[in-house]
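PT: before anyone asks, these are the final sequences, not the draft ones from last week. 594 residues across everything. Please model them as a single complex and drop the result in this thread when it's through.
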Amino acid sequence: MKKILVSSFLFLAAGLIQAQVPAPPTDVKAYDTPDDAGNSISIEWVMSADDKEGVVTGYEILRSESPQGEYTRVGDAPRGTNSYIDSGPQNGKDYFYKIRALSAAGPSDSEPSAAVQTKAQWFKRNRVNGLVALLLLSGGILYFIRKARSGKEIYIRKIAGIEAVEEAVGRATEMGRKIVFIPGIQDMDNMQTIAGITILGHVARKAAEYEAKLEVPVSRALVMVACREITKQAFTAAGRPDAYKDDMVYYITDDQFGYTAALDGLFVREKPAAIFMQGAFFAESLILAETGNYIGAIQIAGTAQPSQLPFFVAACDYTLIGEELFAASAYLSKDVKLLGSLKGQDVGKFLMMAAILVGVILTSLGVYDLSRIFTVR
Amino acid sequence: MRREVPLIITAACGFIFIIQFFIPHPPLNRIQDVFNDWVNIIAGFAIVLGILNLLRVNLNKMSKKSKGWPYALFTILGLLAYVVIGLAFSGGRSFQNPGTAFYWVYINLFFPLNSTMFALLAFFVASASYRAFRARNKEATLLLIAATILMLGRVPLGEYLSGWLPSGWRLADLSDWIMDFPQTAGQRAIMMGIALGIISTSLRIILGIERTYLGGD
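LR: through. Structure below.
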């Protein structure tokens, strides 16, 4: 009797365990991942009907080169997910996928997907909106550059920080003290650094004309090379090539706070009359600007780091805010082509404002799909 | 030619980078990595230039006994000592590993010095805030009010002072509102201006209109 009871219990338990094997995932779809360089297949499936805690523990993604062939595991997906991107396949070959639902009771495989191939795409369709925006903005800028070339006068609003460059250089000359130009702490692959050193060209030329002493301590060796070339050309253009010395532009260190310490020391010891900080700055911005403020230097800062702008505004006499940093070279050169490009930027601003307005109206009306056209991926 | 060649290279690289943003097909998809490798290689050579320049400038200062020449001496000694410790006393290629002399200098000298410089920021924030928040005009007064709400809203004192107010009007809520709306809106406006500025400057450089970075007109 006891044996019969134990056997019945084991039979029932086995039946229960059998019942715990999850239902297989269904409707497995595999397709070439769009807008990429190939070697990638996206897989989607309908999750197992038993996809719940305690039953399905996860999914395995299996791949084969023939529908009835041997499937090998290429990845895992946690419970509750229904998609996976396989980045292993080769371009131009047929692949089949199965999804295996895992559970303590055992696995359960889906039917194989249809054959799928992957290949490199020629265009990222999800960036069409970016291309349209780029063409519109570039077109606007080029139109106004052309217009400026034709001799039509262009009105550009004044920017106090740029107007003050001459004042700062003049003041340094009168006081017989140095002008220090700091082109930020990033390398030549940063647009802010390039914008900063274009301003250096104009400051150096003014310094050469006024016979003021200029010093450019830099934190990147490549920036040093570029700054030297610019300063040398500026002195030559001002008719004072003899006044240029290589040592005006010198390298200190790549280290952020090592550079800051060296500059602070320079400020306190040499007490420059004018300090230009133009480029990419981070935590050192306020340390430098406050030290410059403490020694009474006239300070003109400019950066496109939004988080550092309040510090510069608080501690410097003039601050070029964001886009003004990129516009400064055009303002200072007075070159009509460059000024024309600034006017083109205004067209861009107008387009952005219009896009924001349209987006706000659409979202307020509950039309969310249209507002997604502004998302660039 | 001295001017034309860099302009042609710049224009070609600029256009290639714009195109590769929209075309994922090989070989364009690998161009960014290739260029990044080139930048790293060039920067590797450039650092030698930088170190040589550092030595030359500081040796000049010392030989001329310029103002502050002891700092120049200290800079050279520091540079040479760190190089010698790294090369000769730190176990060769594993010089950066814990337990080496190089690592010891990094942890016990370099790191504290860096932290000290960073810590100065706290004092500079206080002095800059004092200047910025003086209610000299309408804008500065607004800034003062916003900053006061923000500062109080982020500390327990704010909750203590305004806990009796209805939800949404407490200092913490007001400070969140300032950060989420006026601050975010302002910052986004700046970011959009920056994006336009970068596009415009890039175009000027690619088209060869902006040449100051090459040393002039």
